[in-house]
């Protein structure tokens, strides 16, 4: 899925500025689908507008710069739905936590314990955010998608909690523990 398709998806639900599209794709409900930068959103919107798939209007704001508000056209709606018929790419999964875990054997056990606790807290926050999104869902498919994401996060949490001892056991003995043993 590309930035162009995500812009159409966001506009499918209603008008938005480029800034709002960026915010939704980074912090909001679309953050789980694709990461879109300002550098990719605005050229995509300009191209979509040039192709007649979106329109824009300038909205004046008192005491602030004007903003450009985008809306999807009927042709844009058809184009978006057609894009969903295309073969989907693989999910893109990157994790700094997993890089850390891979090298746990090179690190002190106390640090590994700390990072595991931090990750569990982070996952708890993500689950809480998914619950919040579910409560304010607007599209019929939202509940299914959010439940899928929540299940993935809950499974990750369960795995970490059940297997944390294995990762800590790989870690180096802390200096304080080795000194106490002497």
From TrEMBL:
Coiled coil: none
Species for this entry: Devosia enhydra
Record keyword Signal present: no
Name of the protein in its database record: DNA-binding transcriptional regulator, PadR family
Pfam families per the UniProt record, alphabetical: PadR
Keyword entries, A-Z: DNA-binding
Residue intervals of the Transcription regulator PadR N-terminal domain: 8-79
Matching PANTHER family: NEGATIVE TRANSCRIPTION REGULATOR PADR, TRANSCRIPTIONAL REGULATOR YQJI
Gene3D superfamilies: Winged helix-like DNA-binding domain superfamily/Winged helix DNA-binding domain (1.10.10.10)
Example of a GO MF term: DNA binding
